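Exam revision sheet. Question 4 asks you to relate a sequence to its structure. Input first:
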Amino acid sequence: MTKAQVVPGVIRLYDFWRDETDLIIVMERNENARDLMAHIQEHGVFEEPEAAEILRQLIKTLLACQEKNIFHRDVKVNLLNFQYILCITLINKTYL
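Answer key, C-alpha cells:
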C-alpha cells in the first residue's frame, strides 16, 4: 500500500499498527468529502457529463496504480470519496 502513496487520487496512509486483536489505520480525511454511495443516495444519480468525469478520474487513478503493480480488486461506490468539485479519491481498505 505504501507504493500507492505517490499516486494522485489515492487516499494517503499516514500510519498503521497492529495489536493482538486489531489493525489500526490512520489515513487522510478530507472534511468536505463523503463516499460516493452516500451522495448518490441523497441526491440521486449524476448526469452523463458528471458521471463521465468521475469515471475518467477513477480510471486514471487505477491505471496509475496498475503501473506500480498495485491492483485494487474491490472498487465500489462506497470506497470512492466524492468532493463536490467532482474530485474522486480511491480508498483502499484492504488489510496490510
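Marking note for examiners. Residues 58 and 84 are 15 Å apart (CA to CA).
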